[in-house]
Design goal:
The protein has six helices and no strands. It has helices spanning about 5-25, 30-40, 45-50, 60-75, 80-95, 95-105. The protein has about 110 residues and is an all-alpha fold. α2 packs across α3 and α4 runs antiparallel to α5. About 70% of the residues lie in helices and about 0% in strands.
Length: about 110
Protein backbone atom coordinates (compact mmCIF):
# COMPACT_ATOMS: atom_id res chain seq x y z
CA UNK A 1 0.00 0.00 0.00
CA UNK A 2 1.29 3.45 -0.88
CA UNK A 3 2.00 5.84 1.95
CA UNK A 4 -0.06 9.01 2.15
CA UNK A 5 2.11 11.31 4.23
CA UNK A 6 -0.85 13.54 5.14
CA UNK A 7 -2.64 10.54 6.63
CA UNK A 8 0.49 9.54 8.56
CA UNK A 9 0.94 13.10 9.79
CA UNK A 10 -2.67 13.37 10.95
CA UNK A 11 -3.03 9.93 12.52
CA UNK A 12 0.44 9.27 13.90
CA UNK A 13 2.94 12.10 13.84
CA UNK A 14 0.91 15.07 15.09
CA UNK A 15 -0.54 13.12 18.04
CA UNK A 16 2.95 11.78 18.92
CA UNK A 17 4.41 15.30 18.80
CA UNK A 18 1.58 16.62 20.99
CA UNK A 19 2.24 13.81 23.47
CA UNK A 20 5.90 14.86 23.66
CA UNK A 21 4.90 18.53 23.99
CA UNK A 22 2.66 17.65 26.92
CA UNK A 23 5.52 15.83 28.68
CA UNK A 24 7.76 18.88 28.36
CA UNK A 25 5.01 21.30 29.39
CA UNK A 26 4.22 19.17 32.45
CA UNK A 27 7.92 19.11 33.39
CA UNK A 28 7.70 22.90 33.37
CA UNK A 29 4.73 22.84 35.77
CA UNK A 30 2.20 24.00 33.20
CA UNK A 31 -1.35 23.13 34.26
CA UNK A 32 -3.63 20.97 32.12
CA UNK A 33 -5.86 23.98 31.44
CA UNK A 34 -2.87 25.99 30.22
CA UNK A 35 -1.58 23.05 28.13
CA UNK A 36 -5.02 22.84 26.56
CA UNK A 37 -4.92 26.53 25.70
CA UNK A 38 -1.35 26.51 24.40
CA UNK A 39 -1.87 23.44 22.19
CA UNK A 40 -5.38 24.50 21.16
CA UNK A 41 -6.88 21.16 22.20
CA UNK A 42 -9.52 20.30 24.79
CA UNK A 43 -8.71 19.49 28.41
CA UNK A 44 -10.18 16.04 27.73
CA UNK A 45 -7.67 15.57 24.90
CA UNK A 46 -4.83 16.57 27.26
CA UNK A 47 -6.02 13.93 29.70
CA UNK A 48 -6.20 11.32 26.95
CA UNK A 49 -2.64 12.07 25.86
CA UNK A 50 -1.42 11.88 29.44
CA UNK A 51 -3.12 8.52 29.96
CA UNK A 52 -1.83 7.20 26.61
CA UNK A 53 -5.32 6.83 25.15
CA UNK A 54 -4.39 9.18 22.32
CA UNK A 55 -1.15 9.57 20.45
CA UNK A 56 0.92 6.52 19.62
CA UNK A 57 4.41 6.82 20.97
CA UNK A 58 6.99 7.16 18.23
CA UNK A 59 10.67 6.59 18.88
CA UNK A 60 11.88 9.85 17.42
CA UNK A 61 15.58 10.07 16.61
CA UNK A 62 17.62 12.29 18.93
CA UNK A 63 17.73 15.22 16.50
CA UNK A 64 13.94 15.27 16.05
CA UNK A 65 13.40 14.75 19.79
CA UNK A 66 15.58 17.82 20.41
CA UNK A 67 13.53 19.80 17.88
CA UNK A 68 10.36 18.78 19.73
CA UNK A 69 11.80 19.83 23.09
CA UNK A 70 12.94 23.18 21.67
CA UNK A 71 9.52 23.72 20.08
CA UNK A 72 7.78 22.96 23.39
CA UNK A 73 9.95 25.60 25.07
CA UNK A 74 8.96 28.07 22.36
CA UNK A 75 5.29 27.21 22.96
CA UNK A 76 5.78 27.98 26.66
CA UNK A 77 7.06 31.41 25.57
CA UNK A 78 3.91 31.96 23.49
CA UNK A 79 4.69 30.58 20.02
CA UNK A 80 1.86 28.93 18.10
CA UNK A 81 1.83 25.14 18.60
CA UNK A 82 0.58 24.38 15.08
CA UNK A 83 3.42 26.38 13.54
CA UNK A 84 5.91 24.52 15.69
CA UNK A 85 4.38 21.17 14.67
CA UNK A 86 4.67 22.16 11.00
CA UNK A 87 8.37 22.95 11.46
CA UNK A 88 8.99 19.57 13.07
CA UNK A 89 7.14 17.74 10.30
CA UNK A 90 9.21 19.61 7.71
CA UNK A 91 12.39 18.51 9.49
CA UNK A 92 11.10 14.94 9.51
CA UNK A 93 10.50 15.15 5.76
CA UNK A 94 13.95 16.61 5.11
CA UNK A 95 15.63 13.86 7.12
CA UNK A 96 13.38 11.21 5.49
CA UNK A 97 12.40 10.01 8.98
CA UNK A 98 8.76 10.35 7.98
CA UNK A 99 9.31 7.28 5.75
CA UNK A 100 10.29 5.23 8.82
CA UNK A 101 7.07 6.21 10.56
CA UNK A 102 5.08 5.37 7.44
CA UNK A 103 6.46 1.84 7.31
CA UNK A 104 5.39 1.31 10.93
CA UNK A 105 1.83 2.15 9.98
CA UNK A 106 -0.47 -0.87 9.59
CA UNK A 107 -3.47 0.88 8.02
Amino acid sequence: MDCLTQKIELNSIIPAIRMEFIKVLEENNISDAEISRKLNITKAAVSQYKHKKRGKSINFPAAIKKEIENAAKEIIKGKNANSEIAKIINEMKKSKYICCVCRECKS
